[in-house]
Amino acid sequence: STGPEDVFALWRRIASLPDAATCQDPNHAFGPGYAALVVAAAKTRDVKELTAIAAKADAQGDERAQLALTLRLAADALAEDHLPDADKYARRATTLAESLAAPVDRVLALSLSARALCLAGKGEESRRFLEIAIAASRTQPDTIADVRFTRAQCLFYEQKFDEALPLLVESLDHAVRRYGRDSFEA
């Protein structure tokens, strides 16, 4: 049977897919297998299968697919509290995003590393990644809410609730304004 967590996981994967028009744009830097690989990854919840799909992207040399899949592996590892894996994948995604000049993905990867490090109790290292993510998000408005949420989550984890609450409210307000009250993002 399908429970609420299954529906949420599916929505999370659907929301991570790129716009279909972007996949079909021959001028975009996606490799030829990108759409098939990322759609296959969106359909699975099995880590071994996802890792195999990521290995296929590596074998094909499709760096865009590698980036999308590595971000997904980082997010899934973080959701499962596999913090060393989350940080490892997020750092790889950061490197790929820098090599591909993908600034939004770079901010998201930095943010994932900051989250993983914070939850692993590595506060000083987490703050360094978060500072870089905050600076980079200033030129990437679509990432501001994610970075605020990361900062709020770290403050919450450090039991700095008074500092975390306004950031959580700001993140929610931003998501509601940008995507609507009933959106996945909100």
Globally, the shape reads globular
SS-derived structural category: mainly alpha
Q: Mean pLDDT score, rounded?
A: 79
Ends distance? 26 Å
Low-pLDDT stretches: 19-29
Radius of gyration: 16 Å
Describe the protein in words.
The chain has 186 residues and is mainly α. The protein has ten helices and no strands. It has helices spanning 4-15, 20-24, 34-43, 47-60, 63-79, 83-99, 103-119, 123-137, 144-157, 161-179. The longest helix has 19 residues, at 161-179. The protein is globular, with a radius of gyration of 16 Å. Residues 19-29 have low confidence and may be disordered.
Blueprint (SSEs and pairs):
Layout: H1 4-15, H2 20-24, H3 34-43, H4 47-60, H5 63-79, H6 83-99, H7 103-119, H8 123-137, H9 144-157, H10 161-179
Task: Provide a short characterization of the protein structure.
With 186 residues, the chain is mostly helical. The chain has helices spanning 4-15, 20-24, 34-43, 47-60, 63-79, 83-99, 103-119, 123-137, 144-157, 161-179. Helix content is 75%, strand content 0%.
Primary descriptors:
186 residues, globular
